[in-house]
Amino acid sequence: MIRFEQATKYARTKGIKKPIIEDASLTLNRGKSVGLLGRNGAGKSTLLRLIAGAIKLDSGRIIRRGKISWPLGFAGSFQSSMTGEQNVRFVARIYGVDTEELIAYVEDFAELGPFYKAPVGTYSSGMKARLAFGLSMGVNFDYYLVDEITAVGDSNFKKKCQAVFETKLQDSDVVMVSHSTGTIRDYCDCGVVLEKGKLTYYEDVEDAIRAHDKNMKEN
Amino acid sequence: MSNLSTHIRVVGALLVREMATRFGSKPGGYVWALLDPAAHILMMTVIFQAIARAPALGTSFALFFATGYIAFQFYQAMSSYLNSAVRANKALLSYPNVAPIDTVVARFVLQVGTTSLVAFIVLGTIVATMRVETSLHWPAILEAVAMACVFGLGVAMVNCVLFLKYPLYEQVFNIVNRPLFLISGVFFLPDSIPAPYRDLVLINPLVHVIMGFRKGFYPEYRAIGLDMTYLYGIAFLTLFAGMLVFTLSRKTLRNE
Fold first, then answer.
1. What is the pTM of this model?
2. Is B254 an interface residue toward A (CB < 8 Å)?
3. Do B213 and B66 contact (CB within 8 A), yes or no?
4. How far apart are CA A74 and CA B27, in angstroms?
5. ipTM of this predicted structure
């Protein structure tokens, strides 16, 4: 379960103060995967980072039950001077999972070949995404926070992701940000629309998509 | 998430990461961390032996410079390495498990270990090969080292934040910090400086670090002007300021 209680967060850059969420209360129950919809710059990625706990609210609180992943973005949370393998080793250590097992799993999944032992800085964005996706799938979480990542990679890789993801989703849920309503439809049961600092929950993902489309048409 | 075992795990992982990226990319690896200061001391010894007749203290040029240089390094290597602790690990901070303070703790542990190892090897070799037998006074040595580390940590924690917030400050700090090596008493004894100027020199806490450290190697050294209370005060005050700034600027450090 993830519950927002009067959660407020402003984004501040160079004197501009913009609400991401304002006084939002919302409960996301276990067993349902959530699609997060909103216009460009609405703060969807920031919202994922808030859920992950990587950044803090200005006021209110987020209650989390269960193990939540880091936000899985296509930029990756990788240190570019470290090799792919070193990055995987690092994550295995900080999450306390078996290091060798995870290294082997990701090596097999990401299909980076010799690049697995090269600095991440030399990777293409597709390679990074493969590493990021493989890495997070190798660690068991109750919630996976996914930020557009399935949009990266060729069709083979997409198929592979989908297969692994579907087995994962039997015991885990996903909170997904995507501009592709197709992807949201494929993975999510319910939806949340983020618009002007307000979070609106829809039991049916189709309703969420409709609401989002309507928002987009308004301006 | 913020429990102690997570912090310990993360610091451990960061330690390995720092070792791998700091030394792993060059041939020779960690050996350079030891070779670099040793070569420095050797060069200074050779140069000063050529221009001066006797060191300001004792009979060994090597021991005189090594004690000054290494005591100074406990501060200097610490602060310059830790200044960028948060910045260098920015990407890793996107894992919610990793807190900014963990990056500082990891680098602190690694740097204390490295400089201590350098001290053991370099000073050990010098003391063992000297003609005159030296008796070490460990409490004085450890006290000076501890204060240099605490002070370095405090300075670095302040810098971690201020370098991010005010890039101009970084330039100013580096300009001010650079001549510190010359005025901290690595090459000279503050005791021998005439009265009005000596008080100025003694404002610098690192002068006290080096004097205290040398007292541990030279039992006959009187260290006039050494004020450990002042050194403790400055060191812990700086650390407190560092912790305060660090805590208040969590958001900046997380790059929100």
1. 0.89
2. yes
3. no
4. 33
5. 0.84
* Enclosing H/E stretch for A20: strand A16-28
Q: Which residue has the tokens 């990407």?
A: B91
- Nearest Cα neighbor of A136 from A74, A66, A182, A83 is A74
Separation of alpha carbons B101 and B86, rounded Å: 8
Chain B: closest CA distance from residue A180 (Å): 24
Q: Which one is predicted more confidently, B254 or A122?
A: A122
On the CB side of A146, CA atoms within 13 Å amount to: 34
**Domains with residue ranges and CATH for chain A:** 1-67+144-160+174-219 (3.40.50.300), 78-140 (no CATH)
Using CB atoms within 10 A of its CB, is residue B236 exposed (0-12), middle (13-18) or buried (19+)?
Answer: middle
Domain boundaries, chain B: 4-253
Fill in the amino acid letter for B12: G
By C-alpha distance, which of A185, A72, A186 is closest to A131?
A72
Which value, to the nearest 10 degrees, does the dihedral of the CA atoms of residues A26, A27, A31, A35 take?
10
Report the Cα A84 to chain-centroid distance in Å.
20
Cα nearest neighbour of B22 on chain A: A81
pLDDT in tens, B173-195: 999 998 998 999 888 898 888 88
Q: What is the DSSP letter of B179?
A: T
- The shortest CB-CB distance from A94 to any of B9, B91, B256 is to B9
Q: How are beta strands A173-177 and A143-147 bridged, if at all? A: parallel
Distance CA B157, CA B242 (A): 5
Dihedral of alpha carbons A185, A187, A190, A193, sign: negative
Amino acid letter, A207: D
H/E run at residue A174:
strand A173-177
DSSP character at residue A180: -
